[in-house]
Amino acid sequence: MHDNISREASSLSTIYRSTDGYPEPLRSELKAELRDYTHYVIEKDWPAHRRGSVPEGGEHRLQVIRATLMSYEPATKTQELLHTELLHYLDEMMVHREQRMEAVNAAIPGVMWYMVVIGALLTIVFLWMLHMEPIPQIILGGITAFFLGIMIFLIYAMDHPLQGAVSVSPESFRSVYDLVMKWDEPA
């Protein structure tokens, strides 16, 4: 999941930098729209993801960016190549965004949870069935139960990759904003 979010942020950074090849006022308009989208992802999308919801504002902003790009008619071959490449990166970014939106409510199926719990219980039962001295059996059983407990907790904590305390952060988008976009923002 983290790799997908990094690729989305990377595509956003490439699009932002590529807008330098567009004439004014289109360049400034696109940069402002891309900065607005980035702010929205960081400030609105991510808090909503943590609650398990998917707001539509980011999609609306991308539609505006796409409409702005589609209204542009390149005048030279160089502009046409740049425009085609930028549209490619926009499509790529939108695919990664869709994957992020799908991951908001992605979870391990309930049947898998049953299998994890049943497997842990069977492991502990088989340990009790071993014919050993009491002290080594308690130590071995305790270590195994502790390890299984930690693994079940870890699976539970990472079950929803964009929700809860152990989740993917919007750090990739913050980096793109801080390193690429921040300096172009009007004072």
Write structural notes for this entry:
The chain has helices at residues 2-18, 26-50, 57-70, 77-103, 110-129, 134-157, 171-181. The chain has 187 residues and is mostly helical. The chain has two domains: 2-106 and 166-184, no CATH class; 110-157. Helix 1 runs antiparallel to helix 4 (77-103), helix 1 runs parallel beside helix 7 (171-181) and helix 2 (26-50) runs antiparallel to helix 3 (57-70). It is rod-shaped. The two termini are 35 Å apart.
Notable features of this structure?
single chain, 187 residues, mainly alpha, 2 domains, rod-shaped
What is this structure's SSE topology?
Elements: H1 2-18, H2 26-50, H3 57-70, H4 77-103, H5 110-129, H6 134-157, H7 171-181
Helix pairs in contact: 1-4, 1-7, 2-3, 2-7, 5-6
Provide the domain count. 2
Number of helices: 7
The radius of gyration is 24 Å
Fraction of residues in H or I helices:
over 70%
Q: Structural class given helices, strands, pairing?
A: mainly alpha
Number of strands: 0
What gross morphology would you assign?
A: rod-shaped
Uncertain segments of ≥5 residues (pLDDT<50)?
A: none
Which sheet architecture does the biggest sheet show? none
Report strand %.
under 5%
Order of helices and strands: HHHHHHH
Distance between the termini: 35 Å
What average pLDDT do the residues reach? Answer: 86
In short:
The protein has 187 residues and is mainly α.
